[in-house]
């Protein structure tokens, strides 16, 4: 599965890989709208360092952006950190960012080259291990899954 997710103490960590479709992202985004009891999501990290491309048309980018705008309204001070180093993935994210801005998103959205930089910006505690993998560097070997 090209999108895996894990709840952390205060948010969601996603790992995407390969070619990711809008349907896969939409399924993953539904997780953010249904947090575990007692959790008020404050961020999502999208670790797209192993993603070849997001295979979205313009309407799909709009729909993903609108969903992120909804998260920003539902959860005040929500942050979205997107991590990649690939130019084509950055370009898709920039399209998403421009649409989010045009929709007056309340969420803070930023792009980073490293997990460390994203974590520093979010500035909240997170689990360092899931028992199998080191999570401090966004270990892609970690066992993440959608419910």
* Strand order in space, largest sheet: 1-2-3-4-5
What is the β-strand count?
5
Sequence stretches where pLDDT stays below 50 over 5 or more residues? 131-147
Secondary-structure arrangement, i.e. CATH architecture: 2-Layer Sandwich
Radius of gyration: 14 Å
Choose one word for the global shape: globular
Number of folding domains?
1
State the helicity in percent bands: 25-40%
- Classified by CATH, the class is Alpha Beta
How much is the average pLDDT?
Answer: 84
Number of helices: 4
The CATH superfamily name is STAS domain
Succession of helices and strands:
EEHEHEHEH
Question: Describe it for me?
Answer:
There is one protein chain. The chain is built from 4 helices and 5 strands. The model is unreliable at 131-147 (pLDDT under 50). The chain has a single domain (3-122), classed as STAS domain (Transcription Regulator spoIIAA). It is 35% helix and 27% strand. Strand 4, helix 3 and strand 5 form a beta-alpha-beta unit. The longest helix has 17 residues, at 58-74. The radius of gyration is 14 Å and the shape is globular. The protein has helices at residues 22-32, 58-74, 87-102, 115-122; strands spanning 3-7, 11-21, 43-55, 79-83, 108-112. The chain has a 5-stranded mixed beta sheet with strand order 1-2-3-4-5, sandwiched between helices. The chain is an alpha/beta fold and 147 residues long.
